[in-house]
Design goal:
Layout: E1 2-4, E2 14-15, E3 18-21, H1 25-32, E4 41-45, H2 53-56, E5 62-63, H3 71-74, E6 89-90, H4 113-126, H5 138-141, E7 154-161, H6 174-177, H7 179-184, E8 188-192, E9 195-200, E10 211-215, E11 221-225, E12 228-231, H8 237-244, E13 269-275, H9 280-286, E14 289-294, E15 297-307, H10 309-315, E16 320-328, H11 333-341, H12 348-357, H13 359-370, E17 380-389, E18 398-405, E19 411-416, H14 421-440, E20 446-448, H15 450-453, E21 496-498, H16 513-538
Parallel strand pairs: 1-8, 2-11, 3-4, 3-12, 4-8, 5-19, 12-21
Antiparallel strand pairs: 6-7, 7-15, 9-10, 10-11, 13-17, 13-20, 14-15, 15-16, 16-17, 18-19
Helix pairs in contact: 1-16, 4-16, 11-12
Length: 551
């Protein structure tokens, strides 16, 4: 059920078996896994069902590092979290992303890609993707012939777009997609406007969380007591909440080794090259959208180019890929016809002439739209290449606390995002190799952006963050190297877990949401196992095994 915390009796404790803090992709995914079980689950969500400026202002923070999008505009404090903003692009991390790489400091996950594979398969259903396919198997699904492309440096990258069944044309926005399911669940209480302000482990011992202090902006407050707690508040807030819980350790909860907040990562993105003239049409066929019809629904796939893992090893580079952005010719006959049909043409005579001039293109696009039900394909005047790169874990790229406090009296976060020489070398080497390979294959000659070739610190002006917040509570076997165990449990505690991209040890170069959901499903199975064992020993009803859970 959905409840407004402001309607809850002040100081009346909230009791649960499992308490989840945050109702975004991770929090809602985890909560759904326990619907219908004998367990009592509560979810604490800072926001409401719609955008609220006063709540959003709790995200304001201090930036002392590279310029980046403010937290208050790159994250949404609302039911569904930042899935209210995302575009829906999904892909799994590459196998190399999980491996220890000598040239990437602090690289290597304590689990490998094969370990996560069963949960990636389940995440396909949560995100309503077309199929568990992220390789050349796309082409038979789309009833297309695979392209001819052979390179020892580059390979095709495959993405899928999340597909809402509730709001067609949008990705899965978790607060909308799963709202009714959450509201109907008898064993689940989702408290809106409930802000975690302190994690209580007692005056001397941080090994066990005894409760949470929860407050609202309207002044309500209470305490939550549960057997297990999960922070699922995002790559910045997870670290901030731990650092702000200082009753026992002035450095913050779980921060005995000064690891909380460190190795904050983003996906630097920039327009690295431009292609005009010859080769554009062939490249458009290679790197483009694809449509797959399954079960009465239409799903969208996208192909781009990525650096092969063998080449990354040879050159000792980070992971990287590019997607293509097509800039249409300004006077397309297809667009002219659309203006005429929708009575938006301000120069009808000129638009009629454009339609007649481009009659072949107009006919092809009419067939695409009305027979194939696909968007029109317009000739491009130029194609820009948008690179996305992995960021190497850097302890000096970090989240700390500022002296300034928010409306709840919580210290605001301080962001110090840093990039280094390895990121620049990766972008420069990848873009040069991209240009050389496309020329060799007859796919056009690229003009490389000046910032890519900059030999100094000016290259950072060519990239921006994409609001993929990762790494500030990274998983590790050794508590001196990370914040949580491979199962997501906070090192040194027995009942506090963290979900989301903050646990990523490295980030690859693909969008994180697909991996967030997969890791959260894995965490759900882990917690279910612990709760079953506890229930068996105490003679209590246990949560049933999920029929699709891996052994």
């Amino acid at each position: 059920m959905l409840l407004d915390f402001d309607d809850w009796p002040r100081d009346r404790p909230i009791e649960a078996d499992l308490c989840i803090v945050g109702a975004g992709a991770a929090g809602i995914t985890l909560a759904r896994e326990f619907i219908g079980s004998p367990l009592q689950v509560c979810v604490l969500e800072s926001g409401g069902e719609t955008f609220e400026p006063a709540t959003q202002a709790l995200y304001d923070m201090v930036n002392t590092g590279l310029p980046r999008a403010p937290q208050s505009v790159s994250r949404i404090r609302q039911l569904g979290g930042s899935t209210n903003l995302w575009a829906g692009r999904c892909a799994p991390l590459d196998p190399l992303d999980f491996q220890r790489r000598d040239w990437v400091p602090r690289s290597g996950w304590p689990i490998d890609r094969d370990t996560l594979a069963p949960w990636y398969a389940r995440a396909v259903d949560v995100l309503h993707l077309g199929a568990p396919v992220f390789d050349h198997r796309l082409y038979p699904l789309a009833e297309e012939a695979p392209p001819r492309f052979a390179s020892d440096k580059l390979a095709l990258r495959y993405w899928q777009f999340s597909h809402s069944l509730v709001q067609p044309g949008n990705p899965v926005r978790f607060g909308t997609e799963y709202r009714d399911e959450l509201a109907r669940a008898k064993n689940l209480r989702v408290f809106l406007h409930a802000n975690l302000t302190d994690i209580d482990t007692g005056p001397q011992d941080t090994r066990h969380v005894r409760g949470l202090t929860v407050r609202s902006l309207k002044g309500n407050r209470t305490r939550v007591r549960a057997r297990y707690y999960v922070l699922a508040c995002g790559g910045i807030e997870n670290a901030r909440l731990l650092l702000a819980s200082r009753a026992t350790n002035p450095a913050g909860l779980g921060n005995d080794h000064d690891q909380v907040g460190r190795c904050f990562m983003e996906h630097p993105r920039g327009t690295c090259a431009v292609l005009r003239g010859a080769g554009m049409a062939r490249l458009q066929e290679l790197c483009r959208h694809h449509w797959v019809d399954r079960g009465g629904e239409r799903y969208v796939f996208l192909t781009g180019l990525r650096a092969r893992p063998e080449w990354q090893r040879e050159r000792q580079l980070l992971n990287c890929d590019v997607s293509l952005v097509e800039h249409e010719v300004p006077d397309s006959g297809t667009r002219a016809l659309e203006r005429l049909l929708h009575h938006r043409s301000s120069h009808q005579g000129e638009d009629i002439w454009r339609v007649l001039r481009d009659l072949d293109e107009v006919a092809r696009n009419a067939a695409r739209r009305y027979l194939d039900h696909k968007p029109p394909r317009i000739a491009a005047r130029e194609i820009t290449f948008e690179c996305h790169i992995e960021q190497a874990p850097n302890p000096d790229s970090r989240i700390t606390l500022a002296a300034e406090t928010d409306a709840l009296g919580m210290p605001r976060g301080r962001m110090h995002w840093q990039l280094g020489e390895l990121e620049h070398r990766t972008i420069a080497a990848f873009t040069r190799s991209l240009a050389a390979e496309l020329a060799r294959l007859g796919l056009g000659r690229l003009r490389i952006a000046d910032w890519v070739l900059d030999g100094g610190d000016g290259w950072t002006r060519g990239v921006q963050d994409v609001a993929h917040h990762m790494g500030s509570t990274r998983m590790s076997n050794d508590p001196r190297q990370g914040v949580v165990t491979p199962d997501g449990r906070l090192h040194g505690t027995d009942n506090l877990y963290i979900a989301g991209s903050s646990v990523f040890p490295t980030a690859g170069c693909v969008n994180p949401t697909f991996t967030i959901v997969a890791l959260t499903l894995r965490l759900a199975d882990h917690l279910r196992g612990r709760l079953r064992r506890e229930a068996a020993s105490a003679g209590r009803p246990a949560p049933p095994e999920k029929a699709h859970a891996p052994a």
